[in-house]
Amino acid sequence: MAALAGRKTAAAATAAARRCFAAEARVVPMIIDGKKVTSQATQFYDVHNPATGELIARTPQCTPAELERAVDSCAEAFKSWRLTPPSTRARVMHKLEGAIRDNTEAIAKVLTEEQGKTIADAKGDIFRGLEVVEMACGMPSMLQGETLANVATAVDVHSYRIPLGVCAGIAPFNFPAMIPLWMFPTACAAGNTMLMKPSERVPLTTVMLAEMANDCGLPPGVLNVVHGGHDTVNFACDNKHIRAVSFVGGNEAG
User: Fold this and answer.
1) pLDDT tens digits, residue range 234-250?
2) Where is the Aldehyde dehydrogenase domain (predicted)?
3) What is the pTM of this model?
4) How far, in Å, CA of 106 to CA of 12, rounded?
5) What is the CATH number of the domain that holds 137?
């Protein structure tokens, strides 16, 4: 019975993902303030299933106004998220870890459809990212400061680990689950907010993971997802509100 329930859950998650990207809603949505938002872009990148050549989605080059809106959302969410107890943030990561485990099959199918890996390789991609989610669950311990007494006469030294603010993650095409999971779980668990920009070639897995994270308890605006190519990368690197950028890829990204 448990195995049957697991299959039903995976099938439901896969069906939900397919509904998101059905023919009548072909454009990949942004995630802003915890909601799917359709871009008003006029330029798109086609996403094809490498095995069949089928057009499965279209990634928008988000407009400057949409990118600004996403950053403003992250900045607003940071005001309260930074003050949220680390133990509360860690509980969200525990829920996300469980959700990823429960839906590994469904995530792997989406990843394979857009990127072309075998299902086995896709599951490995997810598992390597899941290890970082597990690490993020221990963030309360990692955020502990240090005290050194009497470094000089009547002088003690105290160190504190505090969140930076709005961060950006720019991920490549080759590991659609692992690399985004390297980025946003630790950043968010540490009290930062995150603007994720997946590769325009493989955006569906990141959108799915972000929706799962929001469903697990991330407040609106803590994790937003935008899309695009060079212009979006350059925006993230140049924006004055973004305090740190996590990037994996080559210099052709922007």
Assistant:
1) 999 999 999 999 999 87
2) 39-254
3) 0.86
4) 9
5) 3.40.605.10
